[in-house]
User: Which sequence fits this backbone?
């Protein structure tokens, strides 16, 4: 066994052990694990066989409920519960979609799973499809991730050839088709209903809810949609049992998840840790602390769509509830670390430009709001802003918050509103000194370099 | 369908309201007369929820809800005026205005713009936006008739949703995304749809404008009159917008049963003939070979003299009249009354006049169902019909039926705009529509595809008459695929409800003599009759093609299709008209144009345009030709007397559309100086003939029709209401003031047919409800 | 030119879905590969195989950022400019490229070899700053790496398709977190059967 963390072998089983068990990232570093032979040598597809032989679909749904697995795509919705919303019967076929559209700034775990261990994902798809009685599953891979897409495509081909996908899988009588599809550059297509539009060959506009995908989804059929990591966790849950998996984490946020650490730390990377692990452990122990010995200024704990935390909140446990209590969100698990030299206004501007460029443009507040916010932030960052712009930013955010068609608009406001709350002085400094407080912009006034929107 | 609708109770701004389950909050507020501003929502399209203008606050919902996407729930408490709602709406308006050019003074929409209006009512007083607005090149053409000003666009997507999902045509699409989003056309897919103008009307701002209306007027200078379009036989409800003496446009006036809220580009914009500067402003009499202006008095006297002279010298049968499919029912009625009662001849007809019927009174050519009924059809068959070009709004309804799952078969000689969207396309050699109909009857009668007792009976009656008309024979003579016909026959015979429509022009083909009756039999035998979403009928050509027939512009039937020899009808009508009526059938349109008459009275028709050289010679050989029309048509140029008439926008009256709906037209503007309405001219001629007619208004004529024509029994101007009534009529409930009303029939039933629709009612104003109604 | 062979591949793709329209995005990728960018011909071909009207395909094309509507350079260098790369110096990297290549972002070098673009987060934030050359990743890029890359590309060497430079292992050393229920974990597995 190539596992490099503690394991224990009981009877004929290898169980993960220790404080940092690796359910999703296990075997990730085994050379050649992306090939079906190697994957199988390391116990791959055994969970699938077990699922098909020892579980009825309903029992599997129950097992996943028991495990406490919650979606890793951002919202953290209980996976087993989501599956149980599927109507027992419906005139249209039901579908399962894996959301491999990873595009949230600060998040890079799904791409890793696809590149390094695509068979684990495929195995998860088959198990999840069996549990939800789906006979056609789709893997929607973000367009930019071409290599990852090819890895998944090859894994699917290999699994077809091995009789693990197709008719009568492993003699169980269960049939499944899997189609791998590619996006073409649109963050909004990570939103589940926009993804379905995209998968149907349309512009990626989010759909009206209700009806929810579980009732009316892809091609109008009941549809389960889950994140790559969520689906990739299924083999481990089946293999080890819900109880083992659920024994990690906290009461309401069970198990482990991959935290994507980036920014000003010494060792950025993907770390699978039990939910509830304090931020400090991730940043200091796994991330090796601040790069260049700098001071920590702020942390974005769940991808660019969530509010900032301050250094004094470094001991916040990374689970859904504790993060909410701290005024932010666990989101997609993208932990972005900012050091003392970072200009907050500049960083916020950069994040807001993302939302402006990625807004689908369907609804007014998001389309126009992000446009306006960027213009204001630009002039503030470049020293040309007014003090009233700061409150205006806040009010524009208020006019977007809860008023947009989908959560993208809300997401755009997080960094702005929380940064104004936490770093108002820094904004004011930009207005008064016509320069940044820290960073390269602090030394030169750059009001003149406001780039017109059209030039970008 | 008929189950009791479940009602949901809620309160909006403290007022209780009950609406059907599944209604949107917007609709519930609408019912209470509470305005909820909308941009992206359009009642005829699925909710989009994009503009975020229609915010309301619903108790126990943490966020504002959009009224256009939220369905009502029992006990819901909604506020449309709370502080949160006001802030939300003002916020949306502020967003919409940051990139809007605010060029209202030169915008055609100014004055009828939802962005202006809602900003006034719900908007912030000013803008806090002091940066660079997005800029686009000023208006770019998106079609031959429409321009797009992208700066003004608020991205509500109404226009693109209309072209893509309602019209299902190439056209406008959204391009780019986010703040770069814009409406556009792909040069490879030009926006050349006959439905295009609807987007101009739907655009809530001035982003889409009509080329022919740009910079012409301000909306508040327009006089707007509710009326009916005078173009084709669909009879779409319109608002005629007039500035001083010009019709500038027609806008849709929604009538769900007929137009579903849409209008075609012909109806919307083809109005130049009304504003034509060449229109006649004075009567003309030919003197020394030249048509010369004369006074009305002189002209009318002259006409009367000459008509009398011909009658005295050559007898009444030497006089004939060709009426119009464009003039009102009242005018058609007076026209034939003038000829029959005043001049004593049954030589009355119109182009396309005769539709042979197998049984008198059976009305084989009446569309037995309705336009709205198409939505309930499981199958629609178009036999030699091209509604896209000839009855566009029927085509649009067929597209709606397609979306609802109807299987449509296009059986036409030429490529059809619907081909791309339908279940089956069958082609054949032009001129053979009748051959195909008989081949279908042959299949159905010989393959035992009849349904029901009555169907079987009818099949037995018809079998022999079509025994020779095998599909193989049709394949030979009409170049049609015999198997495709067999499959189509099976589809019709197995349909839950099939509607079979043919174009009236097909009845004029050499093979079409019995087409109308054959198609009716096709429906009767296969059980596709007598219910909504099933039936047969013609798609007629003109706005009053059916009214012209109803009113007796036919040589062999009196108004209401009573045979000219019907003694009872003579007694009744002659009594009312104080005249003895001729009993033998008159000459038909073609007979009159083949030298059958010496004097010809032409009202609103232009036989010379499509005439053969022989017919032209016959026209030139006439002793006397009087023509009543708007301009100096090809026929008028040959006339002895020309009497200037006016367009439908200049007079009151009624039209009957292709699905039997009788609707009111209203005068929307002053008649052109010097010209008169056809009915007025007819009254003038009658008086000059000494007939003592005293009609003062079309309303009076319509009331007479209601008393003397059983098919129209009970009709008055008042009883037709805003949206018209479909014959056969039945007495409705009395109004609180005790006024009589009538109700119409969405479809004609077996029972009505058996009794003869036209005879189901007793003359003299008393209505007898046809038996079998409500089955 | 969209050859019959490309169209055949498109049809094969469309057949994988319950509705051929679903093949739109993948087929557009094929069209772009075949012709270098999405041309009217490419759109017409996709319209045909997916059974979608041309104007609707056009509308879809303009929504997604990966479809080019005009020819690009032989090498499209796409530098991520989102937050994590921003924190680790992508702006400096971008400026460096601009200087080295003598073009602004969004432009193509006169000889048609390089197109330089800024793009959104590429899911490589842990290896920031990153870029893609013709769709393949180059990670942890320093300005020196950038220079070397340009030289390599000029020599005609392609960037290899390979997994990212992933740093996955939770390092046990120094981990100070509480001991979790290892024992109970194994005990509970028995019950789960
Ligand atoms: C703007 C937006 C972008 C999103 N992007 C992603 C994404 O890239 N990947 C993902 O798995 N979920 C994304 N989501 C969340 C999905 O909508 C959905 O909740 C998720 O795929 C469900 O999977 P889970 O229950 O396994 O988390 C996004 C949501 C929004 C609103
Ligand atoms: S052009 Fe008019 S109708 Fe079309 S999206 Fe813009 S505002 Fe709406
Ligand atoms: S009208 Fe409701 S969101 Fe546009």
Assistant:
């Amino acid at each position: 066994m190539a596992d490099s963390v503690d394991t224990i072998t009981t009877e004929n089983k290898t169980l993960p052990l220790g404080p940092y068990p690796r359910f999703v990232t296990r075997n990730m570093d085994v050379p050649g694990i992306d090939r079906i032979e190697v994957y199988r040598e390391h116990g791959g597809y055994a969970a699938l066989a077990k699922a098909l032989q020892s579980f009825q679909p309903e029992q599997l749904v129950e097992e996943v409920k028991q495990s406490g697995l919650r979606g890793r795509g951002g919202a953290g919705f209980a996976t087993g519960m989501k599956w149980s919303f599927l109507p027992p019967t419906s005139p249209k076929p039901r579908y399962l979609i894996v959301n491999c559209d990873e595009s949230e700034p600060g998040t890079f775990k799904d791409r890793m799973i696809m590149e390094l261990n695509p068979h684990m994902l495929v195995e998860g798809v088959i198990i999840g499809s069996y549990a939800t009685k789906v006979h056609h599953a789709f893997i929607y891979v973000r367009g930019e991730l071409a290599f990852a897409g090819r890895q998944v495509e090859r894994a699917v081909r290999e699994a077809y050839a091995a009789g693990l996908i197709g008719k009568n899988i492993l003699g169980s009588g269960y049939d499944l088709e899997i189609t791998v599809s590619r996006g073409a550059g649109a963050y909004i297509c990570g939103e589940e209903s926009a993804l379905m539009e995209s998968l149907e060959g349309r512009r990626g506009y989010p759909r009206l809810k209700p009806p929810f995908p579980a009732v009316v989804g892809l091609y109008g059929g009941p549809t389960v949609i889950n994140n790559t990591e969520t689906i990739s966790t299924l083999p481990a849950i089946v293999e080890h049992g819900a109880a083992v998996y659920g024994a990690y984490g906290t009461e309401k946020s069970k198990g482990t998840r991959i935290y994507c650490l980036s920014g000003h730390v010494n060792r950025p990377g993907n770390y699978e840790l039990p939910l509830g692990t304090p931020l400090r452990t991730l940043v200091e122990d796994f991330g090796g602390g601040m790069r260049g010995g700098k001071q920590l200024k702020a942390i974005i704990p769940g991808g660019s769509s969530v509010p900032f935390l301050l250094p004094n909140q470094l001991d916040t446990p990374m689970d859904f509830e504790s993060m909410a209590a701290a005024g932010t969100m666990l989101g997609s698990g993208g932990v972005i670390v900012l050091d003392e030299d970072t200009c907050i206004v500049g960083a916020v501007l950069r994040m807001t430009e993302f939302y402006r460029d990625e807004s689908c443009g369907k609804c007014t507040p998001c389309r126009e709001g992000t446009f306006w916010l960027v213009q204001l932030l630009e002039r503030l960052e470049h020293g040309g802003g007014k003090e009233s712009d700061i409150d205006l930013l806040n009010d524009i955010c208020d006019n977007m918050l809860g008023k947009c068609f989908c959560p993208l608009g809300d997401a755009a406001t997080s960094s702005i509103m929380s940064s104004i709350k936490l770093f108002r002085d820094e904004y004011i400094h930009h207005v008064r000194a016509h320069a940044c407080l820290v960073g390269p912009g602090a030394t030169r006034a750059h009001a003149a370099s406001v780039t017109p929107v059209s030039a970008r | 369908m008929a189950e009791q609708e479940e009602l949901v109770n809620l309160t909006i701004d403290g007022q209780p309201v009950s609406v059907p389950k599944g209604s949107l909050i917007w609709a519930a507020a609408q019912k209470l007369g509470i305005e909820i501003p909308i941009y992206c929502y359009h009642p005829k399209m699925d909710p989009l929820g994009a503009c975020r203008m229609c915010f309301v606050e619903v108790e126990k919902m943490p966020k504002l809800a959009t009224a256009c996407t939220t369905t009502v729930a029992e006990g819901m408490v909604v506020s449309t005026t709370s502080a949160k709602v006001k802030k939300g709406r003002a916020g949306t308006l502020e967003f919409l205005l940051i990139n809007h050019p605010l060029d209202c003074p030169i915008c055609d929409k100014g004055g009828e713009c939802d962005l202006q209006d809602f900003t006034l009512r719900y908007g912030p007083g000013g803008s806090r936006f002091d940066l660079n607005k997005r800029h686009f090149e000023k208006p770019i053409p998106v079609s031959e008739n429409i321009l797009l000003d992208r700066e003004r666009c608020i991205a509500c997507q109404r226009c693109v949703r209309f072209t893509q999902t309602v019209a299902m045509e190439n056209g406008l699409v959204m391009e780019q995304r986010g703040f770069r989003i814009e409406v556009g056309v792909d040069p490879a897919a030009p926006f050349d749809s006959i439905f295009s103008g609807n987007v101009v009307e739907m655009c809530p701002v001035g982003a889409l404008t009509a080329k022919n209306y740009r910079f012409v007027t301000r909306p508040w200078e327009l006089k707007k009159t509710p009326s009916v379009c005078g173009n084709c036989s669909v009879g779409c409800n319109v608002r005629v917008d007039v500035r001083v003496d010009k019709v500038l446009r027609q806008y849709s006036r929604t009538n769900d049963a007929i137009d579903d809220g849409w209008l075609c580009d012909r109806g919307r914009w083809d109005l130049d003939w009304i504003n034509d500067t060449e229109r006649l402003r004075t009567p003309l009499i030919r003197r020394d070979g030249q048509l010369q202006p004369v006074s009305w008095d002189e002209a009318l006297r002259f006409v009367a003299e000459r008509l009398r002279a011909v009658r005295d010298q050559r007898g009444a049968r030497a006089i004939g009249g060709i009426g119009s499919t464009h003039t009102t029912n009242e005018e058609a009625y007076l026209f034939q009354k003038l000829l029959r009662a005043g001049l004593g001849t049954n030589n009355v007809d119109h182009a396309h006049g005769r539709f042979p019927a197998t049984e008198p009174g059976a009305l084989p050519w009446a569309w037995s169902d309705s336009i709205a009924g198409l939505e309930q059809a499981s199958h629609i068959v178009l036999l030699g019909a091209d509604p896209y070009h000839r009855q566009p709004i029927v085509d649009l309804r067929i597209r709606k039926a397609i979306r609802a799952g109807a299987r449509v078969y296009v059986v036409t000689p030429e490529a059809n705009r619907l081909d791309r969207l339908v279940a089956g396309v069958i082609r054949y050699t032009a001129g053979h529509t009748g051959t195909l109909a008989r081949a279908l009857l042959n299949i159905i009668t010989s393959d035992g595809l009849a349904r029901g007792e009555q169907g079987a009976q009818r099949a037995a009656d018809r079998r022999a008459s079509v025994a020779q008309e095998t599909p193989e024979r049709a394949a030979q003579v009409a170049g049609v695929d015999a198997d495709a016909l067999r499959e189509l026959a099976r589809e019709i015979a197995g349909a839950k409800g099939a509607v079979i429509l043919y174009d009236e022009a097909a009845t004029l083909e050499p093979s079409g003599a019995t087409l109308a009756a054959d198609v009716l039999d096709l429906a009767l035998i296969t059980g596709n009759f007598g219910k909504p979403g099933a039936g047969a009928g013609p798609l007629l050509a003109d706005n009053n093609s059916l009214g012209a027939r109803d009113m007796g512009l036919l040589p062999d039937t009196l108004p209401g299709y009573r045979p000219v020899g019907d003694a009872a009808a003579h007694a009744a009508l002659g009594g009312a008209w104080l005249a003895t009526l001729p009993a033998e059938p008159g000459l038909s349109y073609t007979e009159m144009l083949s030298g059958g008459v010496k004097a010809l009275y032409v009202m609103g028709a232009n036989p010379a345009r499509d005439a053969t050289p022989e017919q032209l010679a016959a026209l030139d050989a006439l002793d006397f030709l009087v023509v009543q029309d708007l301009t100096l048509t090809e026929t008028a140029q040959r006339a002895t007397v020309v009497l200037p008439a006016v367009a439908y926008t200049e007079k009151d009256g009624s039209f009957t559309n292709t699905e039997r709906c009788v609707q009111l037209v209203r005068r929307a503007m002053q008649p052109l100086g010097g010209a008169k309405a056809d009915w007025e001219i007819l009254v003038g001629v009658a008086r000059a003939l000494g007939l003592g007619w005293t009609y003062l208004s079309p309303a009076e004529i319509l009331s007479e029709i209601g008393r003397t024509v059983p098919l129209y029994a009970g009709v008055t101007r008042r009883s037709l209401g805003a949206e018209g009534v479909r014959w056969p009529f039945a007495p409705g409930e009395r109004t609180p003031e005790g006024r009589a009303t009538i109700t119409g029939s969405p479809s004609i039933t077996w029972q009505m047919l058996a009794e003869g629709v036209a005879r189901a009612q007793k003359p003299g104003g008393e209505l007898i409800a046809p038996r079998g109604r409500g089955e | 030119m969209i050859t019959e062979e490309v169209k055949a591949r498109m049809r094969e793709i469309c057949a994988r879905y319950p509705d051929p329209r679903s093949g739109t995005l993948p087929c557009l990728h094929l069209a772009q590969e075949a012709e270098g960018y999405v041309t009217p011909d490419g759109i017409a071909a996709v319209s045909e195989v997916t059974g979608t009207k041309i104007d609707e395909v056009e509308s879809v094309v303009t929504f997604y950022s990966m479809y080019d509507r005009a020819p690009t350079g032989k090498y499209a260098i796409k530098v991520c400019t989102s937050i994590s790369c921003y924190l680790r110096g992508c702006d400096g990297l971008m400026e460096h490229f601009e200087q080295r290549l003598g073009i602004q972002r969004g432009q193509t070098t006169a000889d048609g070899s390089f197109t330089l673009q800024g793009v959104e987060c590429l899911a490589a934030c842990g290896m920031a700053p990153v870029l893609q050359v013709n769709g393949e990743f180059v990670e942890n890029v320093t300005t020196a790496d950038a220079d070397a890359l340009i030289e390599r590309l000029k020599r005609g060497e392609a960037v290899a398709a390979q997994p990212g430079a992933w740093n996955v292992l939770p390092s046990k050393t120094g981990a100070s977190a509480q001991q979790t229920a290892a024992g109970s974990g194994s005990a509970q597995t028995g019950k789960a059967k």
In short: Chain A has three domains: 7-246, 256-339, 344-455. Chain A touches chain C through 97 residues (CB under 8 Å). Confidence is low (pLDDT under 50) at residues 1-5, 8-12, 447-456 of chain A. The pocket of flavin mononucleotide (ligand 1) is lined by residues A 71-75, 77, 99, 101-104, 188, 190-192, 225-227, 230, 406-408 (CB under 6 Å).
